[in-house]
C-alpha cells in the first residue's frame, strides 16, 4: 500500500477529515491543514478495528493510520459528521494516539442557537490548540489566516469559472487534482501556483463538446474516478461533493468576533447530507446546474454511506420535477469502476443535445 505524503514538508501538518473543520484556526496555530483522504485499494487491516459495514473512505483512512502512514501528522481533528466518523475517531484515539487529537460536534440547524453552539465548539478547539502549542491565537493572526484562505477560495472560483464556457477550458480531472493539492499543501504555495495556472489557462482553447454533468453525493477520494467519468463521454463541470467544488463555496464575513464569523460561515455553507437539508441541497444543485448549463446529474454514493443513500429517492424525484436528468450510481471506492461504464455511457448518450 502506498502511504500518503505531504507535498509541503517544511511545516508541521495537522490532519483533518471533514469540510466543516475550521482550517483558518489550524493555520493560525502554526500548522498546515492536511486532509486525510484514505486510499482506493482493498482494505487490509481496518476490518479488524471497525465494523466492515462502514464506507471505504473511513476504512481506508484507518488502514493507512494503523500501518503508520500518517505518522508525519502532528495530530488529527475529527468532526462529529456521521457514525462512521465517530468510530474512526474512537479507533484512532485508542490505537494510534497522536500528540494532538480533537473531536468537534456540529449542530444540524442554521439558527442563531446553532451558530452559537458551533462557535463555542470552535472556541474549544482554539483553546486546545493554544494549550498544545503554548502560543496565543490573536485577532490579527486569525484575520490574516481568514484572508489567506479567502484568497484560495476566490482563486478556485476564478479557475472554476473557466468551466462556464462550452467547451470548458479546464477539465474535471484537472480541477480535482488541484483540489487534492490544496488539501495537502500550504495555501500560500497553492495560491501562487493557481495564479500562474490562471494566466496559462486563459490563453488556452480546448475543443471538446461533450455533455456537461454535475457530480453530486458522497466524498470522492480518488481523482481517477473523475477521469473515469470523463472517459465515458462527458465533461464533469462541477463537483457537488465535499472534496470538490462545493468545498470552496463558503463566504466568511469578518467581524469583531472572528470565531463567531467562522461559526456562522461554516454552519451556513452549502449543506451535506448529514445536515438533513434536502430542499436546500436540491436548490443548490439546481442553481449550480442553471449557472453552469448542466445537461445531467450523476448522483454517486459510496457503499454503506447511509447519510447519502437515504436521500437518493427524494433527491432524484425533486430534480426530475425540475426536468433535470439524473442517474444514480453506487461504488465501493476500490479499484477500477469499469462495471459502471455501460450505465454512464448510456447516460451520456441520453443527455446529448
UniProtKB/TrEMBL annotation:
InterPro entries: FldB/FldC_alpha/beta. Belongs to the FldB/FldC dehydratase alpha/beta subunit family. This is 2-hydroxyacyl-CoA dehydratase.
